[in-house]
Amino acid sequence: MIKLDAVTHAYGERTVLRDITVDLPDHRIGIVGANGSGKSTLVRLLNGLVLPTSGSVTVHGLDTRRDGAQVRRKVGFVFADPDAQIVMPTVAEDVAFSLRRQRMDKAEATARVAGVLRRFGLEGHADHPAHLLSGGQKQLLALASVLVTEPQVLVCDEPTTLLDLRNARQVTGLISSLPQQIVLVTHHLHLLEGWPRVLVIDEGTIVADGPANDVLPYYVSLMSSPAATDAPPPR
Ligand SMILES: Nc1ncnc2c1ncn2[C@@H]1O[C@H](COP(=O)(O)OP(=O)(O)OP(=O)(O)O)[C@@H](O)[C@H]1O
Ligand SMILES: [Mg+2]
Question: Which residues contact 61 (CB under 8 A, 6 or more apart)?
Answer without folding.
Answer: none
